[in-house]
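== Sequence, structure tokens ==
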Amino acid sequence: MDEKAIPQIIEAAQKLLTRVVEAEGKLQEGVDLWGAQVIEQTTERAAQMKPFRKLLEEVKARNSVGKMARLAVSQQDLESAEKGLHQLEWVEAAVSASARLAEMIGYLREAVEVFGDDHSLSQEAVIYRNDVLTMFRGESPPEAANVASNRTRGEDLRKRFAEEAVRAHARNRLDGEGDARKRAVLEGVTYRDLGKLASVSILPVGRFGSLQTELASIQSCLSFDEGTLLKSVVCPECKYRPSSAAGATARASVDAIGDELEALRKEWAGAIIDSLKEPEMKEQIDLLGDRAVSIQTFLEERILPSPVDDDFVKLLNQVFGRFEVRRVSQKEIWETLFPEQTASTVGDLEGRFDGFLTDLKKGVSEEKLRILPAEEEEA
């Protein structure tokens, strides 16, 4: 044996030994693919690699022609080492195949979790998963052609998941135009008017509250890039997780809510008019005096003021809350101011009249109190 060949042999043995150590590490750590270990029988495979490792260590230690010549290797040793080499190549092929598929498999695994097991693409992905794992269950290592075929198949499935995620995103998120429409509804006169009218005591506000909640739940994604859904089906901008749910699009829902708000405003206007037309309400309106102009105009034209303001709402609540009417005759006032029919000072008159008003206000707020002149028989 040529002395110059010894370093080359040792170098080759070292490279093989490094591969064996790395493969043993993979066997110990395990190689996970979509929740399953792609390398089975790890203890048996590690045991079969030991004779090969031992032979390589023997070769590496013989750094001279004489030492190399004294290397004793039986036929059984060679056969055992050959089995170890086969296991090394199997493990390396499995690790390589797993690495080629790992990123794409990770995408598909997340997509199934997001879309749910019942989605047709998820069901197809589960079948694909089983087919991929089958590659690692044979005696022979995964073939490159088979790995490439499964990668192509998986990428096609990824593309279809991404397309479905894009459609779902478009259905359930507002783009720039849709977001502008939502803001127009929120900032529009109808929405503001309903917000004011919601405090009118006779109106049921549940429906308006529901529409507010529904509108608020419709979210926007103004910087959406559909290409990002090839990396993850969850939108990185708005964190939207697509689903297979059908129904109206987010934009259509905003338009429908806008229409419902318009209809609700008309409905509330009609309800207020019907209530104000009740006979007992006429007297209540008259008690407003000059301030009743806006309500009278509303009743005549049957059109709500636009925009509805706080004063209009306050007047409505005063009417529907019913005023407390206290009627006072001339005689009562005269007897209060001049109980003894004698001369009085200004202070006396002020004190007596203040006491008279205090008695009238008992048990009622000043806002709801109206004092009307009465004939003697009324008093």
